[in-house]
Amino acid sequence: MASGLHAIALFAAAFVGCAASTRPRENPDAFRAAAVALGGRAAARGCALDAGELADRTIAEWSARSSEAWAPDWACLAIQDNLSRDSMGSCTPPPADVFGRPLSFARRIAGELFYVGLDPREYTYDLVPHDDLVEIEVRVQFLGPLAQDPARIATLQDKMHRAADLWTRYSPGGRFFFRFIAETTDAALPHFQVHLDAGSTRTPFDVTWGEEWSWHLLAHEIGHMMGLDDEYGQLRKTLGHAIGEDKRWDVDPVDKVRWFQCDSTSLMCDSKGEASTPLRYHYYLLLRRRFCRVTPPDRDVVAP
Ligand SMILES: [Zn+2]
Fold first, then answer.
1. Are 260 and 235 spatial neighbours (Cβ–Cβ below 8 Å)?
2. Where are the alpha helices (DSSP H) in 70-197?
3. If you measure from the C-alpha of residue 167 to the centroid of ligand 1, how many angstroms do you get, rounded to a whole number?
4. pLDDT digits over 117-126, tens only?
5. How many domains does the chain have?
6. Disulfide: which of 130, 138, 182, 209 matches 157 by Cβ 3.0-4.6 Å?
7. CA–CA separation, 47 vs 99, rounded Å?
8. C-alpha of residue 221 to centroid of ligand 1, in Å
């Protein structure tokens, strides 16, 4: 999500610099092996189609093929984009190891992702072993006058539990469970400190939360905190809102694909409603980091 100013900055940056895609290109064989193992459709030199071509084909064949037929292509693009923007992006261990190898000690993961290829922000969360299971925990401390009200925090915590349950329910093999905790002090070493605002404020996920955000939107925003990018075209979506096209999106799925250019069954593509879910590659992207060394961020993808 982005504030108006934030969106304008993204627009401006898009014209003077472009999002580089370097990480998967550093080791295309490792990227392709991981993408294919995750169900992605990857060609010899990356994904076969870019988002625009894929949206066009999805729309052109909408009546003949289900939109799920294109899921492997959308997955390839999402994996490629996420890796290319991640300070741990050059690390693509085999998915079988990521999902199957026991975790021997707890680890706090921290890194940086260039959200939508332009906006560097930190991600951080804990991985904690529990026998054969792995817990993924995100603690968020709320700041401001509203955060002093225990009833508000309790309501927020309920929604965070529902968001965590969604992440747990779709986890590969049922070996991973998620805990998202609302904190009101820094005693528990929170991963994030955000201001709690009234209503449904729209700001970056690591600055302000709106107390009326739905549990499903929280699942999407906490996905960002765990270092997953938006999969829709940020500029196209912002433009669509600006010209009122968004009124059609709820009633016309073809129009939505045309503007979003991503797989609307994915939680990181479509945060509205309650239908989208985390997908297998999301778990790979965040769980693989336990095998990764921190690498320097791609400063050169930021516009000068
Ligand atoms: Zn988002």
1. no
2. 71-84, 95-100, 150-169
3. 16
4. 778 899 999 9
5. 1
6. 182
7. 23
8. 6
